[in-house]
Design goal:
- It is a single chain.
- The chain is an all-alpha fold and 65 residues long.
- The protein has one domain (2-52).
- It contains four helices and no strands.
């Protein structure tokens, strides 16, 4: 836990100061920076849908995209 604390900036340090285990700290850092699995799936689905519906508009060339 000391190693994790020493690598944090002041904002993250105060957010994690209530954690009692290193795993709890790790999990909170992961959710903070990566989001929950449900959020990740939603973002992935959104990006996939955006990719699949990507089309050129009329009178648009590759340079305009």
């Amino acid at each position: 836990m000391n190693i994790i604390h020493s690598s944090l900036n002041s904002d993250e340090f105060f957010r994690l100061s209530a954690c009692t285990t290193a795993k709890e700290m790790r999990d909170l850092i992961q959710v903070t920076h990566e989001g929950t699995p449900k959020v990740n799936r939603a973002q992935n689905n959104s990006l996939i849908q955006e990719y699949e519906t990507f089309r050129m508009k009329q009178r648009e060339n590759i340079r305009d995209m």
